[in-house]
């Protein structure tokens, strides 16, 4: 399995605190069946700045450490870029890293709202040939209330990444419900851990894929697995299936009522 969103780099954000914690996370990932991951430290979120050059150095150091400790895990560079007004200046200055050097960039919204110019940002990236992947939209309060907000982003060229802990209930019932709803309606394209800490927020990727298969069917699991591989390989992502409820043409309101009942 491939995990495209992790905070495994040591001591640079709220993920692994030091090299020992990074190595513990790496060993836990291997035990879970993960063979490759993208390190996506927070960038420009108001607390952490980890530009592309700095992040690249940190990835190199951790890779060497994996080799020294014989940990069979491929590590790639990425960032979790918080949407900010200077984002395109930062892009021009080479401060932003895409996922594993691909055409995909991981963007994080604030937890409470969808930024006003979100669709414009997605459009700007898309015309540059870069496709935004929206990190855990199920945890954004505005998307939870109105999933069409994410629909608009996907229609504008973005993709959705759901977090293992969200679908497994780790962030509470409301986020769990939101996560499954977004999955069922085809607005999620890939699944990853957003792992921060071996105990507090680990991987649970195998468990989450198993749940996706049992709840939604093999097609969804295969879509998410395929897309995680395609991101690292810089290939086209495939569209998500939708559940029968959506295919029957039920309105968003009906779907919402159904899952809240
Ligand atoms: Fe994250």
What are the defining features of this structure?
Caps_polysacc_synth_CpsB/CapC; alpha/beta; 6-stranded parallel sheet; Tyrosine-protein phosphatase; binds fe (ii) ion; manganese ion binding; 3-stranded parallel sheet
Description:
This protein is of the alpha/beta class. It has one domain: Metal-dependent hydrolases (TIM Barrel). Helices cover about 45% and strands about 15% of the residues. It has helices at about 20-30, 50-70, 85-90, 120-125, 140-145, 150-155, 165, 175-185, 205-215, 220-235, 245, 250-260, and strands at about 1-5, 35-40, 40-45, 75, 80, 105-110, 130-135, 160-165, 190. The strands form two sheets. It has a six-stranded parallel sheet with strand order 3-5-6-7-8-9. The protein has a three-stranded parallel sheet with strand order 1-2-4, sandwiched between helices. α4 links the parallel β6 and β7. The longest helix has 17 residues, at about 50-70. The radius of gyration is 17 Å and the shape is globular. The model is unreliable at about 245-250 (pLDDT under 50). It binds fe (ii) ion (FE2). Fe (ii) ion binds near residues 5, 7 and 40.
């Amino acid at each position: 399995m491939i995990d495209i969103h992790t905070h495994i780099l040591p001591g640079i954000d709220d993920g692994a605190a030091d090299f020992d914690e990074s190595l513990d996370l790496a060993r836990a990932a291997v035990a879970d069946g993960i063979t490759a991951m993208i390190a996506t430290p927070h960038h420009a979120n108001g607390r952490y700045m980890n530009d592309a050059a700095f992040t690249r150095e940190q990835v190199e150091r951790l890779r060497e450490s994996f080799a020294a400790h014989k940990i069979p895990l491929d590590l790639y560079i990425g960032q979790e870029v918080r949407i900010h007004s200077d984002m395109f200046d930062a892009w021009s200055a080479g401060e932003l890293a895409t996922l594993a050097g691909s055409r995909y960039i991981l963007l994080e919204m604030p937890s409470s709202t969808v930024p006003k110019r979100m669709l414009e940002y997605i459009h700007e990236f898309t015309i540059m040939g870069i496709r935004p992947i929206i990190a855990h939209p199920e945890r954004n309060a505005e998307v939870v209330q109105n999933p069409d907000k994410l629909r608009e982003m996907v229609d504008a060229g973005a993709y959705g990444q759901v977090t293992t802990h969200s679908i497994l209930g780790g962030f509470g019932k409301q986020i769990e419900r939101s996560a499954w709803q977004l999955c069922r309606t085809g607005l999620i394209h890939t699944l990853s851990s957003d792992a921060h800490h071996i105990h507090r927020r680990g991987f649970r990727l195998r468990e989450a894929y198993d749940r996706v298969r049992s709840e939604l069917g093999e097609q969804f699991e295969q879509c998410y697995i395929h897309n995680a591989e395609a991101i690292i390989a810089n290939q086209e992502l495939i569209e998500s299936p939708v559940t029968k409820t959506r295919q029957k043409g039920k309105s968003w309101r009906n779907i919402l009522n159904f899952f809240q009942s």
